[in-house]
Fold these 4 entries.
Entry 1:
Amino acid sequence: MPQHLFDRKTDSFFGSLRYVGYVLLPAGIILGGSPWWSGADKAQMLSVGALLFLLGVLFQSTHHGFQIDFRDRRVREYLSMFGLKTGKWAPLPAFQYVQLSSNLAPAHAHDHEHDHDHSHEDPAPLVPWYTIGLYSRQQEADYELRTDSREDALKTLQLLSKQLNIPIQDKTAN
């Protein structure tokens, strides 16, 4: 990746369903490469195996992301499928500062959208999540990135501050 390009995966497109890809990949290989099939069955099973394999790759690799092109002063949020990124570039806003904040949230809170209920499970432990926000003139961040790694958050904070020549506000400092 070029030095002038900041690229960050933000979340999986399929949420926790991405783990299905770990099952589909070997299932595709086993079905497609099995020596038990013969004649017409072999062609059909090879096709089914290839399809399952491709679906496995799709489930594992499709994600949303965020890019800043420091050289050409532009930004985009994208969808990546099979390594191909789609999303429109927009001019880079005049960011005023980059802010780091943190909060405690359940371990699974930032893993996927919650369109289902977790009440049947034991409560997930609370873990710190760090948010890096890029602010222009609004009270809310123009863009936000989240991570559960303080070290990663601090590195990202420093990089964005240096590359964009904007000050840091660290709301996590005690």
Entry 2:
Amino acid sequence: MLPKLFSLAVVATFIVDITAGPISLDTVLDIVKRELPSTHRLHERHLSPLVHKWTKKEKVPRAVNLPMRIGLKQVNLAAGDKRLLEISDPTSFHYGNHMTPDEVIDFFAPPQSSVDAVITWLTESGIAADRIGQSANKQWLQFDASVEEVESLLYADFFLWEHNSGSEDIAAEKYHVPIHIQEHIDYVTPGTRLRTGSAKTPSSMPSKKRAASLSGRPDVSLLPGFPNPNSTTCSIYVTADCTRAQYSIPNGTTAYPGNQLGIFESSNDHYSRQELDVYFSTLYPYIPNGTWPEERLIDGAVGAIEDPSNFTNVEDGAESALDFNSAIPLIYPQGTVLFQEDDQWYESHGGYNGFWNTFLDAIDGSYCTYSAFGETGDCTDPDCLDPVYPDPNPGGYKGQLQCGVYKPTNVISISYHQVEGELPDSYFKRQCNEWMKLALQGVTVITSSGDVGVGQKSQCGGDEKQIFSPHSAATCPYVLAVGSTQWDRFANATGPELPYEKLNEVATTRFASGGGFSQIFGTPSYQQEAVAAYFAQVESSLPFDGYDNFVVDGNYSSVSSGVYHRGGRGYPDVAAVGDRQVVFTGGQWQLIGGTSLSSPVFASAITLINEARLEAGKSTLGYLHPVLYSNPQVFHDVTVGHNPGCNNSPGFPAAKGWDPVSGLGSPNFPALMDLLLKL
């Protein structure tokens, strides 16, 4: 595999070599004289909206060597979805036959015929076979070649380009390949893509935090003194005991090896071990002190922090505390795993927009060089810039990007989101393919749906900020998205609330459960009937209309009317309690709400069911969507509430069956366990 920063070193080399300044007459004549043979066709050209921040500079000298990569077209992307449905269909003979990581690589690898065709083209063009290598994940070919060789190969002219941030890259405005080769390759790099590389943010400039954010924590209520943290009044104080009582979840009794619940954290939010001990000692004395998550720290990340004053811009830890305070008591004696990504420089200073890629790199080594939708590896484009390792910034992690250093847990809970349109579609699609690959391996990825209903005004689309803005990764059809509910006393209830009294479950009211329809991903087959049934109930009463076309890269110019995408993947899929959770963080007892609670609660339920399946000698559940949508009876249907947002839009209403507020509903755990344990 080529070194991650090799292309940057090449840039530095030819910058030194270029001393002639303006383009010479010989170079101009060389460009004009090149004639394209009839055997070749244009393969890629610059898209003008993507180069407006770049200035074309000098022609790259012919003697400069370039590290070339040719991304081979993957096969079986559609077949991957079909295979996933097959092993997730309870009626299939192949149910539960999950794939190994190597089997996944081989399944999506380009056919050998494509590899042979491209190598033959290269060797016949003068690139010796012993100069050509293939990546470990089999998705691209690599070789070093001079600019002269590459320009002759691709009928292209390579220039030095400068970004307005000061970073530089090399690229051609267009390139060509033989007609018979086009079907085998996705793209060539260096080619037309311009990337900013690892140029760090100058210390004199304000740093930009990553665009992704926590999905929840819209309201934090301090509980001074909190005289009764063991309260059984579940409409006021939500604890794991309340969650067990409302959803009929039994106490955990086993800890099957390797079945810990994985919890993802980022954005400089860190838990405290001391505060976890206080929480357990007060509410759950049967959980011994020291019951902390196993820390799987990625690219120099920091796990628990006891003294925030020793770090820069550390958050108060409420998100991490919420995740572990809610999950650990539900699954104990089973444990948890913390996946914390990125070093403290990136976490505290920002300077990048991408999200989840370094996490996915760490749990699947092939993702580090995975090519799809014109992207290979982590994004270096300014529109989706990911952290770069080794981190060149002061105090940054100086090790290499961590690829495949950790095994994913069977269930992973994520309480963070990214708004569709804030990153290129190709970024989200490449990630969604990776969520699919994890599902093929029996991993269930669960995420919160967000806390701003159909969209936060500042992030909504259109000139008047009226177009709904769905949230990733909830919109990926291979991720289980969880909306939020709250427990209230029934309207006819009288007298004081009884301990663990059965309560009425409705959509949250202090904040809006995130939901809607993707602008990037279409409605998956498992969901089509449920979505149609929803609109049959409510469409005539909606005060807004939808639009039919996909929105490309957040450009809403094609939307002439309507505020939601009719043909999009609907979310959330399910729901769970998302408000009034008792948490101990920052040295205080607090009540915290958000779908950041809903995700670990539902993930805990699935972890318990996996526990029972593994004890019975069965496989993990993996991809749950088809079986859940086929069995809505295992949920408490939530029919009261709505999710406003986007310029005070009323949003979508809850309804019978699936809806884009509470999904299929909250778990009826005994029914859910009975269904899934029998599979």
Entry 3:
Amino acid sequence: MSRKGNKRASSQTQAEVNRIIGWRSLYVHPIFGPLAYHTYEEDSNLCPQDGWAVVTSNGQIHTNASKMGAPEEWSYIFAHCLLHLGFGHFQQKKYQRELWNAACDCYIARFLADLKFGQPPQELQGLIQEVQALGINTRSEERIFEVFCERGQPEQLRPTGTAGMTPIDMIEVAKAKYYEVDWQDHFAKGLELAVADAVDIAGGVTPPPRDPDGRVMSEAQRARSWFITSYPLLGALAASFEIIEDQLLCHRMNIAVAAINMEQREIYINPRAGLTQEELRFVMAHELLHAGLRHDVRCEGRDFYLWNVACDYVVNGWLVEMGVGDLPHIGALYDPTLKGESAEAIYDLIVRDLRRYRKLSTLRGVGMGDMLSEPGWWHNSDGQSLDEFYRSCLSQGLLLHQEQERGYLSAGLIEEIRALGQPPVPWDVELAHWFDEHFPPLEQMRTYARVSRRQSSTPDIPRASWIAPPEDSHRTFGVLLDTSGSMDRTLLAKALGTIASYSIARDVAAVRVVFCDAATFDQGYMPAEEIAGNVKVRGRGGTILQPGIDLLEKAEDFPKNGPLLIITDGFCDRLSIKREHAFLLPVGRTLPFPPKGPVFNIR
């Protein structure tokens, strides 16, 4: 990239950083915090090119991403937009909409000047002085609006709002049917909080930290707020989880320090643990990384508690290396000698010394994991959507953290986050690779036994002709279908359709099909193109697969090296298979024994 391109990218990044800093400053302000908590800021083409931002009646602030401004200027712009909502400026002024918008802008400019909040952009500086010089009463928007209706808007009072030379920075949109915010009520709460804090400061008392709704924040909530405002890597994840500090609930759930439920989006903190603010940050980052790195889903048949212990060693090592909070004084799983090891490698180390590692304590307690959600839940549609949300939060948090240079990150953590951002290989692609291994493509052969069609053009030069490869009776495989009552018909149809298409593409003329339930039904050889459409499923009783496997292994008309493809839901006994084979299982299901062949999970 050229120097000019680098400079442009750097300026865009700095503009975005300033805008984010300006937006976050409103969250911690007692007046604007309740309003900012219920609004949403995004880059949009609704804002004019020469403007800063516009606000809609449903609480969305659309900003101009290319606008360069200091953080104080963006704070002023965002406060201006929020005050349109808080003062109830979205009113029906059919014929004088531009004048009403200008009157509201002048009133807000006076309010922010009295509040001494932010810094107005260059085009809005001196607006209040111009209004006062014209002798206009700025006690209310209605008074200013009446003057503008009688005399018109003076030319020196342009622009007045945040949309540049466009006179409208308030955009009316349709009301939401199921969600409506009382903006004036939230603004009133903000004013009450500001007055209460002012009284505390006047009395020599430091005002306690509060959430956007005005409630005094606990130590755990303060730790969560720190991640949202100051640690972009985990900010989005922290905002999506609810903190539960209930001593009786933690006692009933046997939670000594902390635990997390990814399915319910809840983090449990035991108040009796007596953690400091720095220790709470460490514990909360620990639980959030469990969620973002999808440690519960990655268990994949391992012992869940031992897998939890292995993940704890990895996560705690990263947090100590990055300096996020302090290790809890009551102890945590941390071993400097395991630095750089993956959770899978540490798990393999643990299973070699179970007597020692069974006695270790996670943040929940001895012999219990601090990840409470069930891994199987994530395979339904709701679970997959939430799984993608967690991965996206951590991936985008990593980008924002690196762009803003907010602190050191471990190389191992960065590698894992980027690996999670890569989509998994689809099951049908893995199945196609299995077909390629066992059925390489047939190549046409050249022979001089048959004259080429072009031989007459060059009688003195012999030309070989192309012939099709000879038919190979051994080019086939066996399909064992679990037709028990627990098998899903949609799963069977999807699996058979995929097998048929891959068989045709790889010149497999016929496939040996066997149905297995309480008994075995041998369908014999079937043309590949008929498997998906004309097969008639028989049985639908219990699940006994071994007789079908024995039938194919002993069949004289089935090749000795022919591979087997077994389609089942996993509810079967241990199988003894002596030849190459693979399993097709629904996603989330596992076999009751360690498989020797590959397993493809159908989604």
Entry 4:
Amino acid sequence: MVVCYSPATKWLKCSILRFLLLLPYVKSWNFTSVNLPEDTLAWRFALWRNRAFLAIPRWQQNLNAELTLIEAPWPEVGNYQIGLSSTVLSSFPNLDSQNARKTCANLQSVVAVDTDPRGRLWVLDAPQDNDCPAKIILYDLRRNDQEITRCEFTGVSTKYLRSLVVDPVVSTWGSRAYIGDPDDESIIVYSLGQRRWWRLRLVRGSNVPKIYSTDLAISRKSSLLYLTGYPSQDLFSVNLDESREDEGPPAVLKDLASQNTTVSWLGTKLGSSLGLFADYKGGLHYFIVTERASVRWDGKQNLKAENHAVLLQREDVPCITDYVMDSQRNLWGLVNSRHPDGTKKHNLSKLGRSHNVSLPFRTVKVYKYNRFAL
């Protein structure tokens, strides 16, 4: 028991001592509360107010996981008082909807999530080990998590479907989302207003490298959609101005509908990467797998090393697989113990230790927004 006396001269020491004693009780999200190991791969995440949604793909060690879409309290650690750091997770929208063996209508393997300003959760479900097609499902977080709509992507390869980003600019035809990578140098456009989808085929010059789109980000300063993907070191962009005003190909084409768009090659990143996010200052964030570093590229400059800033490089952050912005526009990274597709070398620390170990926290603040900074 710690006794703190009343004299003002001892107040600071007592406060510090209380803080240190409480630190062991501050915990990260408790994955064991939903029968998952603590080192579970949480591939993507999204935020809505005080709620976080985690995509837990049924890949590799998660293959037999009971849950594939999880809700968690946000922030991960809200304060340092005993009993107030809620770490218990839960299934979303419910447990029965995640029974993959029961029916293809249930969630099979959630690989990406995003939210929009209207309180809708967009979920990309892309199983790899059965015959169920990929699908997108929308839930209304303002109305008791009711399902709004769903759409199947019949005939689309699910092998590399790993990213989904909702366009912050609502087009003439309603809200849209972009999905990658269908593994044919295209991206999927899903139009909520039209309740249909089509392929946007990425046209490149003969001297431009192969295009990957397992990571997508939409600029908040321009009309650019950024594309990249592991293991590529190339970064590409697509101008969305025309696409936002276009109705899309004829609806009668259904699953065969497609359009062409020209892709620009922006250059070579600092290395193979995971995660991609465009901030309000025109910067583009990504995590360099080999260096285990989160960097920010100044999008107003060319894609060279001198126009990058290393924002985070720590032993307790071995891998960031996704980024998300909170209501204060601060950027957070989703921390995992290893890179799911990386080699053994990629999953070792600079000291040669394996990173397949428990993590102190699963989210980390990467970038603090300052509206007065350039």
